């Protein structure tokens, strides 16, 4: 933020405006989709002027990216997410995280903006690469790190391609979610984890 | 088609128009996306009147669905696809098909309309369910049948959830393709198949 007035009141107002803008962008992208989302509509919903948004963000993509990252941060604050667990039981840890993802995809608040952004990113290469780099990849790296720890502990095969193992865990869920082939359930998450782990177990 | 003039010349003309409309719809959806695609633009590109399209199809979704099915049919005619192979070697058969899918996703002609339709279907539930039911599910069933044959032959575990195994094979590819996380290669296809098969091998 390039705000020059640094009084406490102004900071509080700025933070309130910032959150109102991020919340409005998430609500609206879920309602109207990425293409029809406008800075004007976000400003109107947030009760701020258009210029307030343009002062802090160069584009609607930038607003949404920060909003999505803030949404992930909220989940952490609410205790839904406290870092990728490492209890020593790789199956339990992966199931825990994949079940949380299932829960998010079954929760309209997370699902609607995630769907709108994923669809927009699928079409718009530049936008998609930005979201993949800044939102998706950091999440995949957490899976990778947990699997590498399990690999170091001798719980999964040393020759396994860990990155592809991660995609085998999250890919079916994304496939089922985006293309609505079948319901997303905890059972589904558990079976994915079990079948992937069997495939990458030490020989 | 509800054409009443059944003379040979008229049939040829109709078939030519039908193909021109389907081809135009695929080219245009790749260029402008599903939302901006109009029947008018398809008609102009195909060199036919709007009414010709409305005589045969009720909506742009219906045109695109038939066009996508025709595109799959073309691949069969060109010998790129001759039914899901069953050579007795489940790994070789799955790799063969998954490599073909990788090739299609690396071919603009297939990739652009598939991406536009998948993104549109992700947003528009009704459209998405239609595409999933009429295009995606029939393809997944071919995988399922091949895996069930391998299961009957004792090559994969009797207790495995075959449907989820299919999603473990195609999910990572869809994930990588739509979200552009990493390049789609034959090596990737092969590793996916190998790691999934290890996971569902007889215990």
TrEMBL record, chains A, B:
InterPro entries: Homeodomain-like_sf, HTH-type_TetR-like_transc_reg, HTH_TetR, Tet_transcr_reg_TetR-rel_C_sf, TetR_C. Residues 15-75 form the HTH tetR-type domain. Keywords: DNA-binding, Transcription, Transcription regulation. PANTHER family: HTH-TYPE TRANSCRIPTIONAL REGULATOR RUTR, TETR-FAMILY TRANSCRIPTIONAL REGULATOR. PROSITE patterns: HTH_TETR_2. GO terms for molecular function: DNA-binding transcription factor activity; transcription cis-regulatory region binding. It holds the Pfam family TetR_N. This is TetR/AcrR family transcriptional regulator. Residues 38-57 bind DNA.
């Amino acid at each position: 933020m390039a705000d020059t007035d640094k009084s406490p009141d102004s900071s509080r107002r700025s933070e309130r405006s910032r959150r109102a803008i991020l919340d409005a962008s998430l609500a609206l992208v879920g309602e109207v989709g990425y293409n029809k989302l406008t800075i004007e509509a976000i400003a109107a919903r947030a009760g701020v002027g258009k210029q307030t948004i343009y002062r802090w963000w160069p584009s609607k993509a930038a607003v949404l990216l920060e909003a999505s990252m803030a949404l992930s941060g909220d989940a952490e604050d609410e205790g839904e997410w406290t870092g990728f667990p490492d209890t020593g039981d790789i199956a339990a840890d992966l199931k825990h995280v994949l079940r949380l993802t299932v829960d998010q995809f079954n929760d309209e608040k997370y699902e609607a903006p995630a769907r709108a952004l994923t669809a927009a990113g699928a079409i718009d290469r530049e936008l998609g690469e930005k979201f993949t780099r800044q939102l998706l990849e950091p999440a995949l790296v957490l899976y990778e790190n947990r699997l590498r720890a399990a690999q170091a502990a001798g719980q999964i095969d040393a020759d396994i391609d860990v990155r592809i193992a991660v995609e085998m865990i999250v890919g079916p869920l994304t496939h089922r979610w985006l293309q609505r082939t079948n319901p997303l359930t905890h059972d589904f998450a558990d079976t994915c984890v079990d079948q992937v782990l069997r495939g990458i177990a030490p020989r």
